[in-house]
Structure formats: C-alpha cells, structure tokens
C-alpha cells in the first residue's frame, strides 16, 4: 500500500502525535513506508521525530515502529540448527569488547553476524578500530563468512533496515537522538533483522556513558528487553559501569592491540570480565550452556587455549586482510604496529605526587583524544586511527611521583595545550579512599538464570 493510497495525510499524522495522540500500527506503517520510499519530505520526517521526542510513545507504538523498521529491508534467514548471537553496547570509552567476544562465541560453535557502527563524539566505533588493520574491509557478505568462519564484524548495508539509515541521519540533525522510542527502535530493528537466536545488550551508565545514573540505564534496558522479546528475539541486558576506560587503552589502533592481547589469554582483567560475562549470558540464553557460570567458563577457555584467536585470524582473512598480516598479528609476539599505522609521537606524562590511583576519568581522556583526531564530531568525518592512549597504571595501584602513568600517541607535535586536562584525568589519593567495583552491576532478563 503506497503512502498516497492512505486516507490520512502525513501532516495529519504529525498533528496527531504532536497533540499527544497514539498512532495505530497502520499509521506507523504509513510513516515508515513513506520514509523508505522517499514519499515524505525530510522536513516532515523531522517534525514527526520531534513530536515523538516531545510526546513519547507507548510500548505498543514502539513495538509497531520497531517491527515496521525491521521489515523495511532485508531480513536474514539462517539454517534452523544455527545458534545466532549478537551483542550491542550503548557506547563508552575503551570499549573493544566486540573484538574478542565475536570470535570467542564462534569458537563455541555459535554464529555471530555482528553489524557494528562507527564512533561519534567521545565514544569509539568497532568498525573504526578494525579499519586500523591493513586491508580490513567492513563491507562484506555476511552469509558466506558465517558459513566459513562463524563470525564477522561488518557495517550496515543499504538493504538492512533502510528506514533506520534515513531516520538516524535526521535524528542527528534535529537533536532527537536521545528519544527512548527512537533509540529502542533503531537498535532492536537492526538486531531483529539479523535473525538472532539471542541478543545481550551492554547498557552502560556513569560519567563516560550516555546515561549517567543506573536508574536511567535500567529504564532503557527494560524497554529494549521488552521490545526485543516482543519481536521474537531472546533479549537480556547487562548494566555496566562506565566511569573509567575499559582496559588499558583508548583509541583505535591501540585498542586493537589490547584486544589481540585478550585473545592471546593476556590483557586487562576488566576487559576479560566483560567478555566472559556477556558471552556466558549469551551461551545460556540460547541454550548452549546449562548455566551462566558454565557459559562464562567456556568463553574463558576459548580465550586461554587459542581457539578464539584462530577464529579472529580466519575472520581477518575473510574480511580482506592478507594471510601474512593476519598470521603475524595473531602470532605469539606483540609487534602489532608492523601492520597498523603508528603515530609520529609517543609522549609519556609523569605522576605529580605519591599515592594510590583512585580514578581515571574516561570522559576527560576521550575528549582530549577526540581533539587530537581520534574521533569525529559528525557522521562521515575522517579520523586518525593512530591517535590513542596507553594507560600505564591501574585503579588501586600505589604509584610514585615522577613515574609515567600514560603514553599518548599523537601526530600533532605539541601537546602543551592539552596538558592541563590530561593531568586532571588521573586522580591520586590515600589507599584508604580506594573502593573496588566490578564492571558489571546487574543482569536483567525476563526469567533470571541459574547463576551456578
């Protein structure tokens, strides 16, 4: 049914929502079809998005919107015996979890068609990180790679949820990105089109997250879970803390290095915690593991025994990286910058006083790296993959005045304009003030699992 065949005009739909009315499924279908076909002007789409932002949507409206967006393009169909899994993060600093998680799940026999995005503002994008690797291509055929390797990390195609591509660009231009119904429909429509058996959402809260407090994050998570399950995707959510960077690196190339270390059974404890926790939840949710704990142990084993690393190497080759480069990156050594651009300068900053590391401000660090070229302010901007930071100390560690605490990778010759803000990233105090906290705060699922 075309837009012109409907009895209600699009201006009338805008007025209905603007005045606080509820759109029925047929009216929402009219809207999404008009968006995809181009029958509706951008100005009218913007007006509808602003009406949704102001008046909100009921659960029924949000489910209908998500379903129509999901059905606006291609929907993947997989063999019935496949366990098809994915993870979505709401974004943070140093979040390279997808890089070891996807191959670890594939090493467990699952299929992972991870359709990822690019970084915007202070948050990093998974595709940007992988494009640091010489030859890596994000525009690939998902079906063949899943058949051959078991996992892929690719960009959104024009055929997958085309309505979302149009709406997201206009949301960005009209300051309606933070609308709950629009966030939910954007995330779940893409994941629903992947034909998933199970989906886990990493909903972050804290200083460097979209949601600053746990209650706001929980509200979003519960809405995402409701819509995901209503559309037939087993959906759960993890609430995780996002004040300090994940792991010991922030940037694109440097985060690939840390992800490779994780895949080799090394690397930071908090990164391993998130990878094993999210992976364990997915293995339990899809029925592969009897309990979450057994799922976590299996993910940890695949990281330790090298099976996840082998899957990552195969994925690299399937996505355009030469066999020599893929093998070199995944060998036991760590000379990663043979195959990724290294910044012209590496500058280390010294600790100003003796004490214990109480905090590392992830948001402040990401903002500096953004200004140095690691991030983008608007979609489509070029970034510098070589810019980044290696954090040389850990939370709770006792440190001495004069020792190095961070190494900045940069191409601009002078860092002096950023010294003041960089020194505020590190918070030092008495060891008695230190309080440890797990990255994971809470797991939300309609039927809580057996944790033992």
TrEMBL record:
GO terms for biological process: pyrimidine nucleobase metabolic process; pyrimidine nucleoside metabolic process. It is an enzyme of class 2 (transferase). Its EC number is 2.4.2.4. Keywords: Glycosyltransferase, Transferase. It catalyses: thymidine + phosphate = 2-deoxy-alpha-D-ribose 1-phosphate + thymine. Residues 356-429 form the Pyrimidine nucleoside phosphorylase C-terminal domain. GO terms for cellular component: cytosol. Transmembrane segments: none annotated. Pfam families: Glycos_trans_3N, Glycos_transf_3, PYNP_C. The keyword Mitochondrion does not apply. Pathway: Pyrimidine metabolism; dTMP biosynthesis via salvage pathway; dTMP from thymine: step 1/2. GO terms for molecular function: 1,4-alpha-oligoglucan phosphorylase activity; thymidine phosphorylase activity. NCBIfam families: PRK05820.1, Y_phosphoryl. Belongs to the thymidine/pyrimidine-nucleoside phosphorylase family. Homodimer. Catalyzes the reversible phosphorolysis of thymidine. The produced molecules are then utilized as carbon and energy sources or in the rescue of pyrimidine bases for nucleotide synthesis. This is Thymidine phosphorylase.
């Amino acid at each position: 049914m075309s837009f012109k065949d409907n009895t209600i005009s699009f201006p009338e739909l805008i007025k209905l929502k603007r005045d606080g009315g509820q759109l029925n499924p047929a009216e929402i279908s009219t809207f999404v079809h008009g968006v995809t076909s181009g029958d509706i002007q951008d100005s009218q789409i913007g007006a509808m998005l602003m009406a949704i932002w102001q008046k909100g949507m009921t659960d029924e409206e949000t489910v209908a919107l998500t379903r129509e967006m999901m059905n606006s393009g291609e929907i993947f169909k997989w063999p019935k015996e496949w366990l098809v899994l994915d993870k979505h993060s709401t974004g943070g600093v140093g979040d390279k979890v997808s890089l070891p998680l996807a191959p670890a799940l594939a090493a467990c026999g699952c299929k992972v068609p991870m359709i990822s995005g690019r970084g915007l503002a202070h948050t990093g994008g998974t595709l940007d990180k992988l494009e640091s690797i010489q030859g890596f291509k994000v525009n690939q055929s998902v079906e063949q790679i899943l058949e051959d390797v078991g996992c892929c990390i690719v960009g959104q195609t024009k055929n997958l949820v085309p309505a979302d591509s149009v709406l997201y660009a206009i949301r960005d231009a009209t300051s309606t990105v933070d609308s709950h119904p629009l966030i939910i429909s954007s995330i779940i429509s893409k994941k629903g089109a992947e034909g998933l058996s199970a989906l886990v959402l990493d909903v972050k809260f804290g200083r460097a997250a979209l949601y600053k407090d746990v209650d706001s994050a929980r509200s979003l998570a519960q809405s995402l879970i409701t819509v995901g399950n209503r559309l037939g995707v087993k959906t759960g959510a993890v609430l995780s803390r996002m004040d300090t960077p994940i792991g010991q690196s922030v940037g694109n190339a440097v985060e690939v290095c840390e992800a490779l270390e994780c895949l080799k059974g090394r690397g930071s404890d908090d990164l391993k915690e998130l990878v094993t926790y999210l992976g364990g939840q997915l293995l339990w949710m899809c029925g592969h593991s009897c309990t979450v704990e057994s799922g976590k142990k299996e993910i940890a084993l695949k990281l330790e025994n090298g099976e996840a690393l082998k899957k990552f190497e195969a994925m690299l080759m399937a996505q355009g990286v030469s066999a020599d480069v893929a093998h070199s990156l995944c060998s036991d050594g760590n000379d990663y910058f043979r195959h990724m651009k290294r910044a012209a300068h590496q500058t280390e900053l010294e600790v100003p006083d003796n004490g214990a590391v109480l905090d590392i401000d992830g948001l402040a660090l990401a903002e500096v790296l953004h200004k140095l070229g690691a991030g983008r302010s608007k979609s489509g901007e070029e970034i510098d993959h070589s810019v980044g930071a290696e954090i040389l100390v850990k939370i709770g560690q006792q440190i001495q005045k004069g020792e190095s605490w961070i190494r900045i990778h940069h191409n601009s010759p002078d860092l002096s304009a950023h010294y003041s803000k960089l020194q505020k990233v590190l918070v030092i105090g008495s060891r008695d003030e230190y309080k440890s906290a797990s990255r994971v705060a809470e797991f939300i699922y309609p039927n809580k699992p057996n944790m033992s």
